[in-house]
Specification:
The chain is of the alpha+beta class and 77 residues long. The chain has three helices and three strands.
């Protein structure tokens, strides 16, 4: 088994995304943001895996997406 993936705290995710910690926890509670509790208690901390957040970001980013196999645009001079 490889190195375990470091788990991120809600505060770290909020800083990374440029949003509030409340926003992160609200999205997690809604089931919109991937994460998990470290125990059954309501006070148990919530943690996030970077790999899951990367996939979530890729699926939820706005703007134009480049289709696979397409050629990049080049500036015309």
């Amino acid at each position: 088994m490889g190195d375990p993936e470091r788990l991120l705290r809600a505060r770290e995710v909020a800083e990374m995304l440029g949003v509030s910690m409340d926003w992160v926890l609200d999205r997690w509670q809604e089931g919109a943001l991937p994460g998990f509790k470290l125990g059954p208690s309501p006070q148990s901390p919530v943690r996030f895996r970077m790999s899951e957040l990367d996939a979530w970001l890729e699926n939820h980013r706005g703007g134009a997406k480049v289709p696979p196999g397409s050629r990049p645009l080049r500036a015309v001079r």
